[in-house]
Automatic annotation (TrEMBL):
Coiled coil: none annotated. One of its GO terms (molecular function) is molybdenum ion binding. It comes from the Eukaryota. The lineage of its organism: Eukaryota, Metazoa, Ecdysozoa, Arthropoda, Hexapoda. It comes from Pseudolycoriella hygida. This is Mitochondrial amidoxime-reducing component 1. Residues 181-330 form the MOSC domain. Pfam families: MOSC (PF03473), MOSC_N (PF03476). Keywords: Membrane, Transmembrane, Transmembrane helix. The chain crosses the membrane at residues 20-41.
Length: 331
């Protein structure tokens, strides 16, 4: 929490991170005041905007750590993206104990492809038959399983034995047991680990916030530094923006997509080994790229041990966004 507080103070109070560390850690009172200031300004959108580009891609990930659904438009609300029963990161694979599992440990999970038509979730993967789950049946179920995501707890609905057998067979060939769960609530997780992010921004089964945005120019700059270029899906963004200069997003305080949907830049996206997994092959890069290259020029030791790439957003004004929408920012 200390590192994230330091970054947040430096962003909102316009001071250097090392100064923010000194100020933020001086006393518990100082920490409390800083948090109060940040929370207040989080809910005060600006009146002046600067156009920087257009929204070029929209991705929704219904099953955490699995494949995406590319979209032309999507509704944006507090819990995350949604259109009908399609919502971002509301399904998740867990152990029978409720502990979440991801492609960090099981890379081939990225090859699991979801599709939602009406009320039905269909799931496919290489070498596996298709399974279907009626989402409306899950809302009516009382088969509750308490799950854990990075020490944050939530009550989810177990999707049943057929789904459990499917995921167990695909991920581990039956050597380990897994279950699929569904987050039925329209509210963010109620039990949160200690951190600077406000509860309203934490989403459903997301690691951090409900939305993550990337800048195409930053992505291109990184690709120019590595031997084998990768695609944006290697970084699993919800939004990709075309037009701004590379790394300009670091300095954005606010983002508006289209005419009505407004987001706050809550914190940078701190990258992990998941970025080394090819979304087309489900294999980890043998040289740990692109993460190793990111570490060489995008790590800011005073704030986080791992590199930044992309920004986590918290929504402040709901609305619909579509590919081609103008993107505005405030610094």
């Amino acid at each position: 929490m200390i590192n994230k507080l330091a970054w947040t103070m430096s962003r909102f109070l316009d001071i250097q991170p090392k100064v923010a560390v000194s100020i933020g850690l001086s006393t518990a009172i100082g920490v409390g005041i800083a948090y109060g200031v940040v929370k207040y300004f989080n809910n005060q959108p600006p009146t002046k905007w600067r156009k920087v580009g257009q929204l070029s891609k929209i991705y929704c990930f219904p099953i955490k750590s699995c494949g995406p659904i590319a979209l032309e438009e999507i509704n944006c609300e507090n819990l995350g993206q949604h259109v009908g029963e399609l919502r971002d990161r509301v399904f998740m694979v867990v152990r029978p104990s409720g502990e979440f599992v991801t492609a960090r440990t099981y890379p081939k999970m990225v090859l699991i492809m979801p599709r939602i038509e009406g009320n039905v979730l269909s799931i496919t993967a290489p070498g596996m038959g298709e399974i279907k789950i009626n989402i409306l049946d899950l809302y009516a179920s009382n088969n509750v399983l308490k799950i854990t995501v990075h020490s944050e707890n939530a009550n989810c609905i177990d999707c049943g034995d057929t789904a459990a057998e499917w995921f167990t067979k695909y991920i581990s060939s039956g050597k380990e047991s897994f279950r699929l769960v569904f987050y039925p609530s329209c509210e963010p997780k109620s039990e949160l680990r200690e951190r600077i992010i406000d509860r309203s921004d934490t989403g459903a089964l997301h690691d951090e916030t409900s939305y993550m945005l990337m800048n195409e120019a930053s992505f291109d700059d990184l690709n120019a530094r590595i031997e084998k270029p990768v695609t944006p899906l290697q970084y699993r963004p919800n939004f990709v923006v075309k037009g701004p200069q590379a790394w300009d997003e670091d300095s954005w305080k606010w983002v508006k997509i289209g005419n009505e949907t407004i987001f706050r830049n809550v914190q940078p996206c701190i990258r992990c080994i998941l970025t080394n997994i090819d979304p087309e092959s489900g294999e980890r890069h043998p040289k740990m790229e692109p993460l190793n290259t990111l570490k060489k020029f995008r790590t800011f030791e005073k704030i986080a041990a791992n590199p930044w790439f992309g920004i986590h957003l918290g929504i402040r004004s709901n609305g619909k966004v579509k590919v081609g929408d103008d993107v505005y920012v405030n610094y």
